[in-house]
Amino acid sequence: MDFHTHTSASDGALDPCELVARAQASKVDLLAITDHDTVVGYEAAAAYHTQNPGDTRLIPGIEFSCQWSSTTIHILGLGIDCGHPVMRDARETMDTVRRERGVKIASRLASRGFDGALQGALAKAGDSQLGRPHFAAWMVEQGHVKDHDQAFNQFLGQGKTGDVKTFWPELAEVISWIGASGGVAVIAHPLKYRFTGMKLRRFIVDFVAAGGSGIEVLSGYQTRDQIAHLKRLAREFDLEVSVGSDFHRDAPYSAPLGVESSPFEGLRGVWERWSAPL
Q1: Is residue 247 packed enough to be buried (19+ CB in 10 Å), middle (13-18) or exposed (0-12)?
Q2: Gap between the Cα atoms of 89 and 95, Å rounded
Q3: Structural contact between residues 83 and 60, judged by C-beta atoms closer than 8 angstroms
Q4: Exposed site from 32, 69, 247, 254, fewest CB < 10 Å?
Q5: In 3D, which of 64, 43, 40, 3 has the Cα closest to residue 269?
Q6: Residues 73-96: tens digit of each pLDDT
Q7: Rg of the chain in Å (alpha carbons)
């Protein structure tokens, strides 16, 4: 199973049909497509899946960006009704937010001498959701940096010129969108925020108070100690657990598609919300 994946509709390398076909070939029984702030990839995948169902069951999902305590947080919405009026409004809101954020990122990059960033990033994005990886791709193409990693390390990553957070909605608002559209809100990759133990617990308290009910205990590659820590938090706060590869592309240090659920027996899995594959 895999409840955290990305397609070319946001910052993944595979188009939605290719991702579904890969999941089917890999014998992934439950697959959630969770592109950043869009369900366009899921909708394309669902159309393909209808014609090519295989043994993989497709779960509608999204990965929302939001703010909590001046930190950008990612919240997965699993099992959402993509056509629900609240979700449609949320998607329009995030489309606008990402466009406005893109203008701000481009303005900041221009102040560092990189003119034309917005047009370049939009060209790289095409029909997908505009994000910092598209600015990075443009910078590489223009010869401003040698690769994606340098773009983020020097200009686009945490605390750098192109790291714009102020446009994201608040945590509670995003969770309300997910709940209203029939989905379950899950904290994505909780250890990536590098919170202290006390701050992580304070965050989870606010997450639960807002209506969140799940936590990702495995996202990509993690150590046994990290997984054990997250399992303890799931028990402490009575949270459902989710697992995912956070698959974006084939790369040396990226996890492959698909996660085994057996190491998480004894915990309430989000996968229990869905029946066996059809």
Answers
A1: buried
A2: 10
A3: no
A4: 69
A5: 3
A6: 999 999 999 999 999 999 999 999
A7: 18
At residue 14, the pLDDT reads 95
Q: Which of 70, 38, 64, 31 is nearest to 179 (CA)?
A: 64
CA neighbor of 30 nearest in space, from 51, 74, 60: 60
* Phi and psi angles of residue 79, each rounded to the nearest 5 degrees, phi first: 70, 25
Q: Reading across the β-sheet that carries 214-219, which strands appear in turn?
A: 30-33, 57-68, 71-78, 184-187, 214-219, 240-244
| Identity at 13, one-letter amino acid code | A
Distance CA 193, CA 260 (A): 25
Domains of the chain: 16-87+172-273 (3.20.20.140), 92-156 (1.10.150.650)
pLDDT at 184 over 90: yes
- The amino acid that residue 261 corresponds to is S
Q: What phi and psi values does residue 217 have, to the nearest 5 degrees?
A: -95, -15
C-alpha span between 256 and 71 (Å, rounded): 28
C-alpha atoms less than 13 angstroms from C-alpha of 79 in its C-beta half-sphere: 16
Read off the pLDDT of residues 48-70 as tens digits, 9 standing for 90 and up.
Answer: 999 999 999 999 999 999 999 99
Tokens of 88: 């449609």
What's the N-to-C CA distance of the chain in angstroms?
14
